[in-house]
């Protein structure tokens, strides 16, 4: 009998090659059939289970008893089902065999056409960025091998993102966020609230003028898998500008007289300064002041400052004019 797995390509074989005889062969469809049949070849690449009965006739015309001749070409197993791995960087290792569903023994290869089976496949590192792949097939219980299928592992780089330091600004100002980096083509950015940002899809945008304290959050994610992401937030504290508004901004005086000016507010966390200092009596760092005697129209400036930091202030200013 002939029993084997299918050949990769069409290949025929004579039925008579399966018989060892010295006489003339006669073929029958069954053991009891009275009429011989014509038997030629079978295709070793096609799954089948067939049999005939054969006898031989001697030179004096005597026919032997019949013997069964069978051909079995087994069916190749199905290609294994593969679930390719694609995920963000994480700690740990994975087994290639966990990515394959099959009923038979697995065979691994380093290419689709490799003629050498791999003895084993190492576990893959889930924290190493890149693409890796092998080819896998499975064996049936008859030892037949399926076609191969590609199994791939893609580990995506986990984005890093930085929204920047918390900042203080004056009401109505803009401020830069994030960090000045060259963005990767694989990483996309999204800032919220987007309505308060000029370009919310870059790593270092500029806000629109702000009137209230706002928490800005940036999410960076891999464009091939949005779940591969990172977030960061920064608070921009908006400080109201101090009030710089005079009770009287224009004061008429006689030549040689003095004028007095006063801001409508005297806020405890605000410092005040008047210029030009040379034409002011007493302190020039108060919310109010008196000029020295004047003989010509003179304009003074009041600057009201609220501290943002040790070196930055939030300022407002107003002009006052003494007319002679």
How would you characterize the overall build of this protein?
The chain is an all-beta fold and 324 residues long. It has strands spanning 2-4, 12-14, 24-28, 41-43, 48-57, 67-73, 81-82, 85-88, 93-94, 100-101, 105-109, 124-125, 130-139, 149-156, 167-170, 187-192, 214-222, 225-239, 250-252, 260-262, 270-275, 280-281, 288-291, 298-307, 313-323. Strands 1-6-5-3 form a four-stranded mixed beta sheet, with no helix packed on it. Strands 8-14-13-11 form a four-stranded mixed beta sheet, with no helix packed on it. β17 (214-222) and β18 form a beta hairpin. It is rod-shaped. The model has no long low-confidence stretch (mean pLDDT 95).
Features:
4-stranded mixed beta sheet, 43% strand
SSE diagram, text form:
Blueprint (H helix, E strand, L loop, with lengths): L1 E3 L7 E3 L9 E5 L12 E3 L4 E10 L9 E7 L7 E2 L2 E4 L4 E2 L5 E2 L3 E5 L14 E2 L4 E10 L9 E8 L10 E4 L16 E6 L21 E9 L2 E15 L10 E3 L7 E3 L7 E6 L4 E2 L6 E4 L6 E10 L5 E11 L1
Parallel strand pairs: 1-6, 8-14, 15-18, 19-25
Antiparallel strand pairs: 2-4, 3-5, 5-6, 7-10, 9-12, 11-13, 13-14, 16-17, 17-18, 20-23, 21-24, 22-23, 24-25
């Amino acid at each position: 009998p002939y029993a084997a797995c299918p050949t990769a390509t069409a290949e025929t074989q004579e039925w008579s090659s399966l018989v060892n005889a010295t006489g003339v062969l006669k073929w029958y469809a069954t053991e009891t059939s009275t009429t011989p049949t014509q038997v030629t070849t079978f295709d070793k690449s096609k799954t089948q289970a067939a049999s005939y009965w054969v006898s031989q006739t001697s030179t004096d015309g005597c026919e032997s008893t019949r013997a069964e001749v069978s051909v079995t070409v087994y069916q190749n197993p199905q290609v294994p089902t593969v679930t390719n791995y694609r995920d963000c960087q994480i700690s740990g290792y994975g087994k290639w065999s966990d990515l394959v569903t099959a009923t038979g023994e697995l065979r691994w290869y380093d290419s689709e056409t490799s003629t050498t089976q791999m003895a084993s496949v190492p576990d893959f590192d889930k924290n190493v960025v890149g693409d890796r792949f092998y080819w896998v097939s499975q064996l049936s219980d008859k030892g037949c091998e399926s076609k191969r299928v590609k199994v791939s592992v893609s580990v995506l780089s986990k984005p890093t993102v930085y929204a920047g330091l918390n900042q203080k600004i004056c009401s109505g100002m803009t401020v830069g966020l994030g960090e000045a980096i060259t963005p990767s083509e694989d990483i996309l950015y999204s800032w919220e609230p987007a309505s308060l940002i000029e370009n919310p899809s870059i790593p270092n945008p500029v806000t629109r003028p702000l009137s209230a304290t706002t928490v800005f959050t940036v999410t960076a994610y891999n464009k091939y898998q949005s779940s591969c992401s990172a977030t960061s937030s920064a608070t921009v504290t908006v400080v109201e500008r101090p009030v710089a508004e005079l009770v009287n901004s224009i004061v008429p005086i006689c030549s040689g007289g003095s004028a007095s000016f006063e801001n409508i507010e005297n806020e405890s966390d605000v410092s005040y300064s008047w210029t030009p200092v040379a034409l002011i009596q007493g302190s020039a760092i108060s919310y109010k002041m008196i000029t020295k005697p004047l003989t010509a129209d003179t304009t003074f400036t009041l600057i009201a400052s609220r501290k943002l930091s040790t070196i930055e202030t939030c300022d407002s200013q107003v002009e006052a004019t003494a007319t002679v």
